[in-house]
Amino acid sequence: MLSKCKMSENVNDGDFFFFFCSSRIPGDWSRVGRVDPTQELELTFALKQQNIDLLEKILLLVSDPDSPQYGKHLSLQEVADLVRPSELTQKLVRGWLQSHGITNCSTVHTRDFLQCSMTSAVAETLLPGSRFYRYVREGQSVIRSSAPYSVHSEVQQHLDFVGGLHRLPPKGPSVSTEQQSSKAGFHLGVTPSILRERYNLTSHDVGSAENNSQAVAQFLEQYYHPADLAEFMGMFGGSFEHLSQVDKVIGTQGAGKAGLEASLDVEYIMSTGANISTWFFTNPGRHESQEPFLQWMVLLSNMSDLPWVHTISYGDDEDSLSTSYMMRINAEFMKAGVRGISLLFASGDSGAGCRHMGKGQNCFRPSFPASSPYVTTVGGTSFKNPFKVTYEVTDYISGGGFSNVFEMPDYQVTAVKKYLQTAAADLPPQAYFNVSGRAYPDIAALSDNYWVVSNRVPIPWVSGTSASTPVVGGMLSLINDQRLLKGLPTLGFLNPRLYKLQGRALFDVTEGCHLSCLDEQVQGKGFCAAPSWDPVTGWGTPDFASLQGFLSE
Q1: Which long-range contacts (CB under 8 A, 24 or more apart) does 85-90 make?
Q2: Residues 6+ apart with CB under 8 A from 22
């Protein structure tokens, strides 16, 4: 482990193996009391998979354009045959659960997750140390255990983690609205037509392949309203062919108000990736004990027919998650990538972040899954002149930096080392970041001053990397469209091919810095944009016409 900022640890104590997963309860959650012993819970058991090293090797081969294996993606069945837990693992874990009277379990096609129902009393017996409480925030209620839990030592080597105990949903990305004055003759905010002008998409750049699809995923009680989407397309989609309805909703849409985040995501992936079938994953969770992000990952392991591009605006601090949890989630990302699926995550809206270590010492705070080596992470930019379609500069909120957990992947070593050398004079002190960690973001797009329709109201000046991510996702969907029409495989995991472009077909962003710790040493300044790749805007923003030329062959 590469961490400068200490992570969770696992400890063997005789017959039991303690998982010291983070029990940090965010301050915006309030604990209201122990749950009744008869309270029904649903916990997720992540069984140890086989052949993860081989899975990674296959992913890199099918994602490398110089490999003869490029584009030879696997089916869900082939992935299942590769990673399925051993018979011994399945037998021991099921036997352990059954010995506690737990029989109401469901699994997935790959057999590496078990989701089981039980009472809280049974759960606390099964997992010594756990104590389940109800927590509330802004009308949302979840059940979690804030204490480290343990499993019997005979079982621990067959489990990666148990989901539904510790992780509370973080606050959504800080999508913000900020009113600004307009000037005659200048544009009044980012709309689909402004994006098409800046990124060189014509009115003819719309989808037409029948077997193409894209998706957005929401985990934080966020819903969209079909009427908002129709109104948005009526207002802003007149210059290009488009769809005005989501084709498929996976999960249950809530009956409350539309969320600004959900409205933003679906409106901009469908106006950039125009005329392409779109799915909306919404995960409110059937039980208060479920973890919505984990539920989405389980779904990906159980569906043979999935959209080719998924954009997700979700993240948590690396140091709030156990390493075993993140490593397993990485394996799930690899499972998606080898199937030809592209996963795009927002880089976050906290710049380099800041973790207070005590005694006046701080370090930057990377975010996961943005820091995963197996996803494409999208940062944010602003127009130099917010009222004109000009060149772009750094959006100061754009998340970026270096992982404290994951090593720098080979595909980015050359680019990142070049940045560290050329920007050496302007770098923050090395005590603040892990110079050998996975660096992100990989790419960026405008993240400032968007128009969104939510609850039938047009809202201006919406900002956040939650905006840039579906925009990039929509463009990748259009490129997939051209590839599918030519009989070529989908892009899948983009990063190895993206880094081999070395900035070609991208608008380099070289101005501006993002925010970080407010202390005497760095004074709120994180990393700064620089020529070629940098940890604020990645390789820059897409020149779609050129990018499609490079990636659709």
Answers
A1: 85/47, 85/48, 85/49, 85/50, 85/111, 85/112, 85/158, 86/48, 86/50, 88/158, 89/47, 89/48, 89/158, 90/47
A2: 8, 166, 167, 319, 320, 321, 322
Token pair 């109104």 is found at 231
Backbone angles phi and psi of 265, in degrees to 5 = -60, -50
d(CA 204, CA 210): 17
Q: What's 430's DSSP letter?
A: G
- 229, containing H or E segment: helix 226-236
Longest dimension (CA), the chain: 74
Residue 535, both tokens? 């940890």
Closest CA to 318 of 330, 306, 309, 302: 330
Spatial distance between the Cα atoms of 397 and 264, rounded to a whole number of angstroms:
18
Q: Lowest-pLDDT range, 78-92, 319-333, 493-507, 526-540? A: 319-333
Enzyme catalytic residues: 261, 265, 466
Q: Where are the alpha helices (DSSP H) in 434-516?
A: 465-485, 495-500
> Residue 114: what pLDDT?
96
Residues 6+ apart with CB under 8 A from 124: 130, 131, 132, 145
CA 161 to chain centre: 20
pLDDT > 50? residue 215: yes
523 neighbors 505 (Cβ within 8 angstroms): no
Residue 493 near residue 411 (C-beta atoms within 8 A): no
CA 39 to chain CA centroid, nearest Å = 31
- Lowest-confidence region among 143-157, 317-331, 339-353, 525-539: 143-157
Q: What is the dihedral of CA 100, 87, 336, 372, to 10 degrees?
A: 70
Residue 528 reports pLDDT greater than 50: yes
Where is pLDDT greater, at 238 or 146? 238
CB 342 within 8 A of CB 491: yes
Contact 529, 393 (CB under 8 A): yes
E runs forming strands in 77-221: 105-107, 113-119, 132-137, 140-145, 149-152, 159-163, 176-177, 213-218
Burial of 299 (0-12, 13-18, 19+ CB in 10 A): middle
**Helix/strand/coil (H/E/C) assignment for every residue in 269-290:** HHHHCCCCEEEEEECCCCCCCC
pLDDT tens digits for range 44-92: 999 999 999 999 999 999 999 999 999 999 999 999 999 999 999 999 9
Please determine, for residue 543, whether its predicted confidence score (pLDDT) is greater than 80.
yes
